[in-house]
């Protein structure tokens, strides 16, 4: 019998990976909460703007939308443990190892 729940993914990982998995999950849940509040508030502002006859709600939509996009980019693209972060971290480690006095580190 097949189930949709993967029991292997529910098992704890070694400590370092478990902390990373929990941190990533928390960051993504934070972004999902941010996106949900953004959507609800923007719908309410759109209704108020529609009643007033002027589309003033575009300004908070654009301003907050930029913040939401940047938050999403940080969480989904460059989050600690993400590919970009890992690449930059490896490059910095290599640079530090090449500096005089850090050869033994």
Automatic annotation (TrEMBL):
Keyword Transmembrane: yes
Keyword set includes Transmembrane: yes
Matches recorded under InterPro entries: 2TM_dom (IPR025698)
Keywords: Membrane, Transmembrane, Transmembrane helix
Pfam family, one: 2TM
Domain 2TM span(s) in chain numbering: 21-78
Organism domain of life: Bacteria
Transmembrane segments: 29-50, 56-79
Protein name: 2TM domain-containing protein
Organism: Acidovorax lacteus
